[in-house]
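Hi there, hope your week has been kind to you so far. It would help a lot if you went through both lines with me. No rush at all, and the record is pasted right below:

***
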Amino acid sequence: MGKKEILRLLVGFRQFREKFYQGEKSAYEKLSNQGQAPKTLVIGCSDSRVDPAILSSAGPGELFVIRNVANLVPPYEIGGGRHGVSAAIEFAVVNLKVENVIVLGHRQCGGIRALMFPDETKAGGFVHRWMQVAEPAKERALEFTGSADQNILWRNCELESIRTSLDNLRSFPFVVEAVRERGMTLMGIYFDIEKGELLELNERGTFDPIHI
């Protein structure tokens, strides 16, 4: 099973190479010679069903993507350990000077479920510690959802975690500066896997469907 899957991936790479490396002016010739210049940073979940490039039909070089469990942004801090997510955000904002930052949450997020129902999901130590970043989202979801159905509570926490990550983004001085000085935009987007819909966090603080 494993070898068959790897072979399929290698065949996929061959198709990728035929698509993007053919001809004298291939897509990757330009990307190789000029370097990357993505306009948008997407902070998404590691979930295999939620690939930002696939969801947006983006081509090579269009998106700078950070993926982690539950698409979380930790608060800004100096010291205290290794900060892979923070380093990637800094690189995208300061060095690549992206124009947009999207926090992309989604329905049926396993990380959020582990946060909400740790006894049920048996989240390990690494997952448990990481998900503490979203504790404010859990508290808000519990506060306004009450004793509702687990699925509703789960979904509400997924939405609230996007809000928490955006709040944490605004704790980074270089993010605040980029928003103020060059108009970089921060967006919260929610992908409903079950319905095939996107919701956007609007200025009123609610999530509305995006109609395209």
Summary: The chain has a mean pLDDT of 94. The domain at 38-209 is CATH 3.40.1050.10 (Beta-carbonic Anhydrase; Chain A).
